[in-house]
Amino acid sequence: MDAELISSQAKLPKASYAVRTVRTITALVLREMGSKYGRTPGGYAWAILEPVGMIVLLSIGFSIIVRSPPLGSSFLLFFATGYLPYGFYGSSSENTSSAMRYSKPLLAYPAVTWLDAIIARWTLNFLTSATVFCIIITGIFALTEVRTNLDLTSIFLGMFMTACLGLGVGLMNCTLNGLFPVWRNIWGILTRPLFLASGVLYVYEDLPKSAQDILWWNPLLHMTGLVRKGFYSEYDARFVNYSFCWMVILVLIALGLVFLRANYQRVLEES
């Protein structure tokens, strides 16, 4: 059914290229929704339960050690505003890097391009992660009765930037994983400290100056700070540098697209 829907796009000579591309991407998104969530026990529930479980464990563990979180009075909200951006980046990066392998059978159809596969997987991940974010945050506000003046612009911008950073990293890894299969293992080792380096458990200002000078170069730390700024009106997050973050994002996306366009055939063969 999915193959018929996608292949039929090639039979629409009167439709513009943009319209056909949107239809193809939509078909890929619907296909992945059914295969990734519709056939899995629990479906979308696991997308919510996994981050909830992590946030609850962090909250319980740290509430035993310290009396209050670095910001506000709710451990749940503090760790949610750190872990959810981190998870947004991680899922975006992972889904983008595996898009070619996942959609390989459909890339045999002329109507489907490697870029369609990338955009479709990233789009579905963005929509899913954004929905999960809203559900969890709403649940925390309902359960804890936390009252705060939300800065929706900072929250949306911070989360969008984490998704775009994941897209850039995922594009690079998609190429490197295809050209050098061992890269997947190397990348897994290199990024293990990322959880501790991205501000999930602390705020940047509480770190020693020597640690600040090193971790400042992690763009994900800036994005976590920006999201928290949106939830805590008393938190300035002056270290956040928008220019630096967008420069890293745009460079990674541009390089990833260039490298993947030049090597996508080899990447498909190795997938």
Question: Which features characterize this protein?
Answer:
271 residues, mainly alpha
Kindly describe this structure.
The chain has 271 residues and is an all-alpha fold. It has one domain. The protein contains 12 helices and no strands. Helix 3 packs across helix 4, helix 7 packs parallel to helix 12 and helix 11 packs across helix 12. It starts with a helix and ends with a helix. The mean pLDDT is 87.
What is the gist of this entry?
The protein has 271 residues and is mainly alpha-helical. The protein has one domain (2-270). It contains twelve helices and no strands.
Helix and strand layout, with pairings?
Blueprint: H1 2-7, H2 17-38, H3 45-65, H4 75-97, H5 99-102, H6 114-144, H7 152-179, H8 183-190, H9 194-197, H10 209-215, H11 219-231, H12 242-270
Helical percentage = over 70%
Q: What structural class should be given to the helix and strand makeup?
A: mainly alpha
Strand content: under 5%
Rg estimate, integer Å: 20 Å
The main β sheet shows up as: none
Number of domains: 1
The count of helical stretches stands at 12
Distance between the termini: 24 Å
Number of strands: 0
- Tell the overall outline: globular
The average pLDDT score comes to: 87
The secondary-structure element order is HHHHHHHHHHHH
* Uncertain regions spanning at least 5 consecutive residues: none
